[in-house]
């Protein structure tokens, strides 16, 4: 969304059929699409790709050969198993910026766990610092972790593009929900570290 706001041509890859689940989130709707979907997917074109069909992988190979940036949010290793990981695609396009967004990063003991905004919000301590100090942890009213991760990914991609301008080389950018939320709340966490934490 933000890259599109800056003028990039953004092509969103969706599943065949109904497409992105958020198309149906609502009300409110504009026509048959949710206002939420329209707001977070502004300035994007959409295509449907069936990753289980051989032509699906071929489409991604073709796009990655001519694009500047590829962003994905599969479990780590899933796209590599389909021949669509950074190593495979950067061989075809060495200048490719490949941004992977996951729950817990591309490596580590939890990298195969699916990531959701509310889980990372709880694990990071965001829910602990939300709501009454004497009350139970509270889920924020908006998807703060998803938003924070998107902002960090946006900044990291811009930095990788700048590096590529200087070196001619692409990069694999690793962004994850938990790290983004911890970084986003570091000031609050440091302030609360002086206090006894609820258990």
Short synopsis of the structure:
41% of the residues lie in helices and 15% in strands. With 199 residues, the protein is an alpha/beta fold. It has one domain: Crotonobetainyl-coa:carnitine coa-transferase, domain 1 (Rossmann fold, 3-Layer(aba) Sandwich).
Kindly state the mean pLDDT as a whole number?
93
**How big a fraction of the residues is strand?**
15-25%
Largest sheet: 3 strands, parallel
What does the overall shape look like?
Answer: globular
What is the number of independent domains?
1
In terms of quaternary structure, what is this? single chain
> Total number of helical segments?
9
CATH topology: Rossmann fold
CATH class assignment = Alpha Beta
In spatial order, strands of the major sheet run 5-6-7
> What do we call the CATH homologous superfamily?
Crotonobetainyl-coa:carnitine coa-transferase, domain 1
Strand elements, count: 7
Order of helices and strands: HEEEHEHEHHEHHEHH
GO cellular component, one term: mitochondrion
GO molecular function: succinate-hydroxymethylglutarate CoA-transferase activity
Keywords: Transferase
Pfam families: CoA_transf_3
